[in-house]
Design goal:
Aminotrans_3, Aspartate aminotransferase family protein, 17 strands, transferase, binds 4'-deoxy-4'-aminopyridoxal-5'-phosphate, 2 domains, four-stranded mixed beta sheet, 39% helix, alpha/beta, pyridoxal phosphate, 15 helices
Amino acid sequence: MSHLVHRSLRQDPPIAVRGEGIWLYDRDGHAVIDGSGGAAVACLGHGNARVIEAIKAQLDQLSYAHTALFSCESAERLADIMVGHAPGGLTHAYFCSSGSEANEAAIKLARQYFLEVEQPQRTRFIARRQSYHGNTLGALSASGNAMRRAPYAPLLSPAFSHVSPCYAYRDRGGDETDAQYVARLMAELEAEFQRLGPDTVIGFIAEPVVGATLGCATALPGYFEGVRAVCDRHGALLILDEVMSGMGRTGTLHAWEQEAVTPDIQIVAKGLGAGYQPIGGILVHGRVIEGLAAGSGAFMHGHTYQAHPVACAAAVAVQQVIAEDRLLDNVRAMGALLEQRLVERFGNHRHVGDIRGRGLFWAIELVTDRATKQVFDPALKLNERVKREAFGRGLACYPMGGTIDGRLGDHAILAPPYIVTAEQVDLIVDRFGAAIDAALASCG
Ligand code: PMP
């Protein structure tokens, strides 16, 4: 048996030994399509020679230097790439090792900003239910995922409260228009600001396209503009968690580019280093930086491995490959094909209630009955069945279960690498469709 406590103590996982393009191979020689890039991580696929070369070159030159003493060339370069053109007014970057750490950094930077601009009474965050921002205690406090929160509830911070997400499939009323539903969500957010005291709120945290907890749920038009307006009215920051949806996954480099808003702080991770190295980060708006610059002049936070030279060199190479190979064009083209194939395969499927997503980030939501949207009995563990059936057919996808927050139907995410071809999209949807049918059939 394995001595790792990463996952199950009862069952050993297959051992991955090699990756090439969209394929992963285990020790027994099984080939599996990485159809979700892990958890929407491996956006370049596996074995990219340019990224590997960049990592080796960095190691030959400099493996580590503590940021209390030095910056390094790869970190400077990565910051230039990420904010060189100040997209949306984002002028500065901070790099760490994961999405959770990046969320922690966003939370602390936002708080520090209000100390610097002499609004120390701002101590609260508003986030959303059915959200996931990470597993460290601060990021988990922001997360609305009831299942992940429950065991640690006594340890979580009361500084975070939660409002409804924009989840039209289930939450828009039958006789409600999109605009009326958005207006209702804005009224709820405004009421939460009023309940807390508007001048006590630091910021609002949300994923532009919700990943793990809602299965690629996109916001309705006007939702994020409305959120931005509420935050602006009360002087609070808009913090967008693009750990999953960012760095090209939805067809634009940043998902907020499709929402007509810019964040004050943006969180990135998975697509930043594409899994070649562990790296996350935050991008910070110039006005927040001005507050810090006029005050203490430094971000009072840090980790031993922040802006790690090798991780930053990998991310530089990943971002160069995305730009030089014009991979976002492929994300949009293959994303449109993936949508089309999913609609063809599942559009009339009696157990597929919703097909949703953007770019190369798509999910289906499974229900017992399309009319009632009834969720499957969580005891059936449909998500595990989907995972098993897909794996058996040589496909890794990302299914989540019906027990999340008690009311969510099972969903399964596809997030193939940006290099995916049309033939591969067909193969992925074929295997996915067969796996879904087999998993449903096994439920009786
Ligand atoms: N935020 C979002 C939106 C995520 O999807 C995740 C990871 N699934 C995280 C934060 C946490 O990132 P990590 O697992 O790298 O700590």
